[in-house]
Specification:
Order of helices and strands: HHHEHE
Structural class: mainly alpha
Strand content: 5-15%
Shape: elongated
Distance between the termini: 65 Å
Oligomer: single chain
CATH architecture of the largest domain: Orthogonal Bundle
Length: 162
């Protein structure tokens, strides 16, 4: 224990007891530092994963664009199997869907690192629902999904996140 210094003798005599309390927080500090380290690792992983997933998508999107162009020219030729055009179209839509998922993953990484700000704007909810249902139709072709909305447009506030 360290001695307590007083300015004068009266002050020393006036104080009869001194209570000192200390709390060991090393564990909490270490736990917080570990959480911060893990959070940084998670952010790095999200960023790296979205980049690595996006890399092979770029040429695949290019190839499907070429296939779409070729099939659209061949559709009117005799003997052309229209199912090929349909399959290429579905393949292209699914690649678009995957690309949007990867973009969303990248956006999450940027949001968490503070490098992305969201901009609120009016969104046509009917269009958003139609796109979601179209994706669901492609994923479950054996089931029928119908959407009827009145009015034809329904605006709401949302963010610019495709």
């Amino acid at each position: 224990m360290a001695p307590i210094a007083f300015a004068d003798r009266e002050q020393k005599e006036a104080i009869r007891f001194v209570v000192i309390s200390a709390i060991e927080i090393t564990e909490q500090v270490n736990a917080r530092q570990e959480l911060e380290r893990l959070d940084r690792l998670k952010d790095e992983f999200l960023s790296l994963a979205s980049h690595e997933l996006r890399t092979p998508l770029t040429p695949l999107m290019g190839y499907t664009s070429i296939l779409t162009e070729i099939t659209s020219k061949k559709e009117n030729e005799p003997g052309w199997d229209s199912r090929i055009s349909e399959v290429v179209g579905k393949f292209h839509k699914q690649l678009d869907y995957i690309a949007h998922l990867v973009d969303d993953l990248f956006d999450v990484a940027r949001l968490q690192s503070g490098k992305l700000s969201l901009e609120r704007k009016q969104v046509d909810l009917v269009t958003v629902l139609e796109q979601a249902i179209e994706t669901a139709r492609m994923l479950t072709p054996k089931h029928t999904i119908e959407l009827e909305v009145e009015p034809a447009r329904l605006l709401c506030w949302g963010t610019n996140s495709d």
